[in-house]
Design goal:
single chain, alpha/beta, Leucine-rich repeat, LRR (right-handed beta-alpha superhelix), Alpha-Beta Plaits, 5 domains, 15-stranded mixed beta sheet, 6-stranded mixed beta sheet, 21% helix, binds 2-acetamido-2-deoxy-beta-D-glucopyranose
């Protein structure tokens, strides 16, 4: 295509240069002028320049280029909302090289046979109109044609064999029509596609083509890069000759009726996208050994012979998306797959995969979907670094376990990352959809920024810094992205801007490689104020997009803001303090916390890339980052409007920076620059208590460890209540706000932050009462009187959670009521909680002080605040319980049993719980990795050491 594109540019240059000194040749060839006038009679909504004179070349009708002889050489009416049909007289413009009528949705009717007279035509581009009827066989006479695109119309009938005569064609696109019949080939039909030796693109997807694809359609002298035959009705086997085209990059044969064995494709070492899904292929699973460039593979839903996991799984080093749903594979998923640096989506649902799912300790950071639903997995090993919300395990035996069944991987509660988008707002944006037909990735999130910068440099002269990108669907692995361009210093774009800037139909824009082949469709544009139909459509489309835009995050605005901030001097960190235009006084006086520039934080989070996000909430998102000195940090970045103003922010950071305690997550610093409010905390590596309790972390919490966590967090809260000046009431104590560090020391997070967060935070009631349902002190809720005892209530719920390993509200049951109802203090072992408490804890046995602990928890959740103990007495009570257990609560580091010594990956032996005990060996965690299987029994009992 490169040569073709260069040729086009040259051609356009020559045409433009020729059109420049118009007055020099004011006389349009009369035959051409008459032809244009005749075409006009069948067209509505033409630019006003049309028909003003009898001299289209001389007075420059929009979209027309002529040569020095007054002959029309280019007719480009892309996206001008033309209505009507294409008259026979088009055949009179015999010097035409470029005919592009794309993106005129109301331009339709049959294609005139007279198009065949345009023997000099090099570019015939009629994308996204409503042309119907057959493809005229006369088009086979266009021997100079290089670029032939009739896609996205309503064409019917079969592909004329005469197209085999288009020997110069590099781009053949008939996709998205209603074409029927077989692929023409020279043996059966006299002429055929096998003759198109220069073709690089066969795009015939989304038709109703049928019959088999003959062997001799392809040969090794072809230059094909993209074969898109998907979504047709092809039958018969896949021709082996496809495997000999050395240039092939994309092969899409999905959604057809192909049968038989997949031929060897191993010589296709440049193939990046391979889609064979939804056919009736049989025999063994295709062997992809040696196809080292593969990035996106989908061979789902075929009838392959059941087999072990193929060995080539471990060789797909560049894979981003591997989809093999229902292909009959069994065995163990190789660990190596999860470490491939580009892997994003792994979909292996509806197979017979069995044994343990062990993803290793080297999971690629960008991984965002592992779907192994409906297999036979009996246990799972998860390591600290994995974000469990991306794992789907429903329908596996391990989810039958009552405890695991409530976890995210088994319930299918995916916290979907928001679709990134760059939106722009203006009255009259020009919008066109760019459709990528075979992206080599599964999730656009990581590449959208790249596309945006790339497109901005292409379109920048027309719409500097006013370019939005909105990806909105991805069906059948097609990716649609709306390009939304705002006019600058003018109300709307004019015809020539649309023609010259936004017409990408001729592939003059080359997107980043991973986006693959594309085409564009312009949305109808309101060129005028008058309330024509086109305008109405424009308004409707515009407002739909506006709504969509408003619903999505204003990433683009943020980005622009950040760009502007680059200019702010970073020499004086407080230079921008107060640059919000509010009076917020002097820069804050901070103790041991530092000011970060936006630039610094961008650097250490890789520009706030999605893959560095470790959490999200109503306030915004939390990102993980690394400072130049190696310190890991967690950055809480507030959404615009979710926090109070600068003054409150300042007060809070002054307050927070004074609070230091080993059981409180330390504030490292903050960032406050033009609208961005960020708090920088120390990074706590082992996640939240709730993740640990619900098995998301692979951490085993035995009784002693739970006591220790209770003590740590009680100490942190006691410090806030009694030693901070002024005292701080946390207001949102819950297991997700208790973090565990590398030694499993608990640290309370988010204290004071509730003061900063406005009422809109999710999980909070919309009155003045702040807190999270399930943990909320009922007295506080009713009286709205906040006291330290409200934190005590919430902490009591956490203590119950430690016993139950269940969220406070689960299956419509409230943990406090559930415990009270089951309670039987005469039961010495577990106080009647046998059936409701964490079975793991139960089986471990040796719960010294359990009754005392439970009593304490119940005191904390007394109805009346004054009946509850203070945080200080809670600390003392837990210390006593721990002493009874032979533990030394006083010193944090004394108990080396809590430390995890080595970072090396060594899986602890798989022990059924009965052999786990509270003896000191149980604390010996010389590995960061723990088996789920140790915590959750395999229902198949296959986990013997
Ligand atoms: C595809 O072909 C099969 C068998 O020839 C036929 O039954 C079916 O209707 C066809 N589907 C379409 C969409 O043409
Ligand atoms: C792949 O290429 C090699 C070397 O050109 C050739 O010997 C082999 O037969 C080819 N394999 C297939 C399946 O075409
Ligand atoms: C794999 O990806 C890397 C990085 O994108 C690229 O440099 C390399 O050429 C790719 N390898 C193959 C065999 O395509
Ligand atoms: C595939 O990977 C295995 C080990 O990971 C290696 O031994 C083998 O040579 C690789 N095969 C190819 C064809 O790259
Ligand atoms: C997995 O299933 C296969 C086939 O049913 C069987 O041979 C193999 O032993 C199973 N592996 C495990 C670990 O259960």
């Amino acid at each position: 295509m490169v040569s073709g594109r260069r040729r086009l540019l040259l051609l356009l240059f020559v045409l433009c240069a020729a059109a420049g000194p118009r007055t020099a040749f004011s006389n349009t060839n009369p035959q051409d002028a008459a032809a244009l006038r005749s075409l006009m009679t069948k067209w509505k909504n033409l630019p006003s320049s049309w028909g003003k004179s009898n001299d289209p070349c001389g007075t420059k009708w929009d979209g027309i280029f002529c040569d020095a002889n007054g002959r029309v050489t280019s007719l480009n009416l892309f996206g001008l909302n033309i209505r009507g049909t294409l008259g026979d007289d088009i055949g009179s413009l015999t010097e035409l090289r470029v005919l592009d009528l794309s993106s005129n949705r109301d331009l339709g009717g049959p294609l005139p046979a007279s198009l065949g007279k345009l023997v000099k035509l090099e570019y015939l581009v009629l994308i996204g109109c409503s042309f119907s009827g057959p493809v005229p066989s006369e088009l086979g006479r266009l021997s100079q044609l290089v670029f032939f695109a009739l896609n996205s119309n309503k064409l019917t009938g079969s592909i004329p064999p005469s197209l085999g005569n288009l020997s110069q064609v590099t781009w053949l696109d008939l996709a998205d029509n209603q074409l029927t019949g077989p692929l023409p080939n020279s043996r059966d039909h006299g002429n055929g596609l096998d003759q198109l030796l220069k073709a690089e693109h066969f795009h015939l997807n989304q038709n109703m083509l049928e019959g088999s694809v003959p062997e001799y359609l392809f040969n090794s002298s072809m230059k094909l890069k993209h074969i898109l035959f998907d979504r047709n009705n092809f039958t018969g086997p896949i021709p082996a000759s496809i495997g000999v085209i050395p240039t092939l990059q994309v092969l899409r044969l999905n959604n057809n009726g192909f049968v038989g064995e997949v031929p060897s494709l191993s010589n296709l070492t440049r193939l990046q996208v391979l889609m064979l899904s939804n056919n009736k292929l049989s025999g063994s699973i295709p062997d992809l050994t040696g196809m080292i460039s593969l990035e996106n593979v989908d061979i789902s839903n075929n009838s392959f012979t059941p087999s072990n996991v193929p060995s080539w799984f471990s060789n797909l080093t560049n894979i981003t998306t591997l989809t093999m749903q229902s292909v009959g594979i069994y065995g163990q998923v190789p660990q190596k797959l999860f470490s491939f640096p580009e892997l994003q989506n792994l979909i292996l649902s509806d197979n017979q995969l069995n044994g343990t799912l062990d993803m290793g300790n080297n999971i690629n950071n960008g991984l965002d979907l592992v779907d192994i639903q409906n297999n036979k997995i009996t246990s799972v090993t998860v390591y600290g670094s994995f974000k469990g919300q991306f794992l789907k395990l429903q329908g596996n035996p391990l989810c039958n376990d009552s405890l695991l069944s409530g976890t995210m991987p088994c319930m299918g509660l995916q916290t979907e990352a928001p679709q990134p988008t760059f939106d722009v707002q203006c009255a009259n944006p020009f919008i066109e959809t760019i459709v990528f037909r075979a992206p080599s990735f599964g999730d656009v999130a990581n590449y959208l920024y790249k596309l945006q910068t790339d497109l901005a440099s292409k379109l920048g002269s027309c719409t500097p810094n006013h370019l939005g990108l909105i990806p909105y669907s991805n069906d059948e692995a097609y990716l649609n992205v709306d390009i939304k361009a705002c006019p600058v210093n003018q109300k709307r774009f004019n015809y020539s801007q649309v023609l010259n800037c936004f017409n990408l139909t001729l592939q003059t824009y080359k997107p980043p490689e991973m986006f693959g082949p594309y085409y564009v469709k312009a949305h109808p544009y309101a060129f005028h104020d008058k309330t024509s139909r086109a305008v109405l459509i424009g308004i409707v489309t515009g407002s739909v997009l506006l709504v969509v835009g408003l619903m999505l995050l204003g990433f683009y605005a943020l980005r622009q803001k950040k760009r502007a901030q680059k200019l702010v001097s970073i020499n004086n960190p407080f230079a921008s303090w107060g640059s919000m235009g509010e009076d917020i006084g002097e820069a804050p006086k901070l103790k041991s916390s530092r000011f970060f520039t936006l630039e610094e934080l961008k650097l250490c989070t890789n520009d706030f890339r999605e893959i560095n996000a470790i959490g999200a909430g109503g306030y915004g998102r939390v990102y993980r980052g690394k400072l130049p000195d190696g310190q890991l940090i967690a950055i809480k970045r507030s959404k615009e409007g979710s926090m109070q103003g600068g003054l409150e922010f300042k007060t809070e950071i002054e307050l927070l920076s004074r609070v230091h305690h080993k059981n409180l997550v330390g504030l490292v610093g903050f960032c406050f620059e033009k609208g961005e409010k960020m708090l920088v905390y120390e990074f706590i590596p082992n996640g939240t208590l709730s993740e640990a309790l619900y098995g998301m972390r692979g951490i085993q919490l035995d009784w002693s460890r739970r006591l220790k966590i209770a003590l740590d967090s009680a100490r942190g809260l006691a410090y806030l209540h009694d030693h901070a000046n002024p005292p701080i009431i946390h207001r949102d104590v819950k297991s997700t706000n208790i973090l565990l560090d590398e030694k499993l020391t608990a640290k309370v997070a988010d204290f004071g932050l509730s003061l900063l967060v406005s009422d809109s935070e999710e999980g909070q009631l919309c009155t003045n009462v702040k807190g999270t349902l399930g943990y909320l002190d009922p007295e506080y809720y009713m009286t709205q009187q906040l006291t330290a005892k409200s934190d005590v209530y919430s902490f009591g719920v956490v203590l119950l959670e430690l016993i139950m390993a269940k969220p406070p509200i689960h299956e419509n049951k409230y943990i406090v009521r559930e415990v009270k109802m089951a309670l039987d203090m005469d039961d010495r072992t577990n106080c009647g909680l046998k059936d409701v408490m964490d079975p793991v804890l139960q089986k471990m046995g040796g719960l010294v002080g359990f009754q005392r602990f439970l009593k304490l928890a119940l005191q904390c959740v007394e109805e009346v605040g004054t009946d509850r103990p203070s945080m200080n007495s809670i600390v003392r009570e837990i210390e006593l319980i721990m002493q009874d257990n032979g533990l030394t609560p006083g010193s944090m580091s004394a108990s080396s049993s809590f430390s995890i010594e080595s970072r090396t990956m060594k899986v602890v032996p798989k022990l059924p719980y009965s052999s786990a005990s509270t003896s000191s060996t149980a604390f010996d965690m010389n590995s960061r990795a723990f088996e789920y299987s140790g915590v959750f029994p395999s229902s198949h009992g296959s986990l013997k050491p």
